Amino acid sequence: MNQSFSVIIVGGGPAGASAAIHLAALGIENVLLIEAKRFPRQKVCGEFISPECLEHFARLGVQAEMFEASDARITNTIFYSSHGRSLRFPSAWFGGDYALGLSRAEMDAKLLERARAMGVHVVEEAYCANLLIEENQVCGVRVKIKGETQIFAARVTVDATGRVRALARHVENEADIDNAKSRNLASRKSRRPALVAFKAHFENAKMEAGTCEIYFYKGGYGGLSAVENEFANLCFIVRARDVRACESNPVRVMREIVMKNSRAAQTLESARAVSPWLSVALEGFGKNEIAPAQGLIAVGDAASFIDPFTGSGMLMALEGGQLAGECITRFLNEDKSRTLATLASEYSARYGEKFGARLRSCAALRRAAFMPSAIIEAGVGALNLSARMRRRVAGATRATHYKRFAS
Ligand SMILES: Cc1cc2nc3c(=O)[nH]c(=O)nc-3n(C[C@H](O)[C@H](O)[C@H](O)COP(=O)(O)OP(=O)(O)OC[C@H]3O[C@@H](n4cnc5c(N)ncnc54)[C@H](O)[C@@H]3O)c2cc1C
Q1: d(CA 229, CA 103)
Q2: pLDDT of res. 284
Q3: Which of the four pLDDT bands, split at 50, 70 and 90, describes residue 186?
Q4: Ligand 1 pocket list (CB less than 6 A)
Q5: In this structure, are residues 273 and 205 in contact, taking their beta carbons and an 8 Å threshold?
Q6: Which of 105, 128, 158, 375 is the most exposed, having the fewest neighbouring CB atoms within 10 Å of its CB?
């Protein structure tokens, strides 16, 4: 079966679903959303949905459903240095009274369901294996559904496949092969992941009610916060070599690395996992190619992966989906003088305005968070003396608030 669509979005996480819902709400018909998994599916994530996301949920028409799924309201985030010194950041500093704790299984399924209800063609268990490229222009995708390859064409294709950047990587690999051929070199070597993230749901975690707790330790950090059904989600990032030293056993990693943080040792002492452990390798953070090829744009983690301790990855996914929806709608609705090159440059420029400053601030915060422990302890002490300074730091991870607080 060959079919043509106005827009194809690959990836049904928050970025892809947000783009699809916004396109449908803006009147774009014939949008296809392709997702490799069947939802609901679990995902490695802190599951801390920052206050600004709640406004997005209202805009996307899913706020009531999200609150029905969880009443875990988070009014404070507390960062603990490895020696137990703490820094408190009220959720109110991020533009809402509270954040929400809700599993990705629930949140993502509700967004995908909303896209379907808005008239988007949603196909699950469909793996996008390849791009259709004609005259250097992406004009659709090849998708494996139940073992069969199907071809779908579109005027615009969106890479919302998260950190794997499945479509963008395909374009880069093609370019690498061309370069390698012309320079007679082997194509790009795969990078070895330096970090690994784990997560599981727990009962009996002894944390402060209404808080998300973040624990720093040598080489990484972890977050513990409430989700639905009175469970707590523990999600942590550690160095790959520490995982190997613990024989890739998540319980050993938790006990021998994460619980070196004195506060984590207290809260997790009698906690018990109630879900299977999930893990994923992390290659790095930061901005990628926003418009990797003519006819292809990237959203969410496929565009940029912001450091998870900022709790703003899902916000960027939802905002990015909206931005992509607006730019694509303009391209499709306006006169023929708007070319794919105009779409790429408008989207890249607006993306830079929206996310550039916060990506730079978060990169600086990440460097600061991994300085020698004596410097960190001194920094935590200094920040504790000034709520204004803490508020500025919080604002730096969010574009609009940064401008307000920096003035
Ligand atoms: C350890 C960790 C903790 C985090 N904690 C938080 C947090 O507490 N709060 C927060 O706001 N953010 C957090 N984040 C960031 C957040 O998870 C991401 O920013 C967010 O998931 C990005 O959404 P996305 O839609 O871009 O990608 P994803 O959520 O990754 O969705 C991509 C989708 O694409 C699908 N897909 C991939 N390849 C294909 C293919 N070839 N064909 C079809 N479908 C495909 C996948 O199945 C997936 O469903 C965390 C990230 C990590 C790694």
Answers
A1: 10
A2: 81
A3: very low
A4: 10-16, 34-37, 44-48, 50, 127-128, 160-162, 164, 166, 197, 235, 237, 300-302, 308, 311-315, 317
A5: no
A6: 375
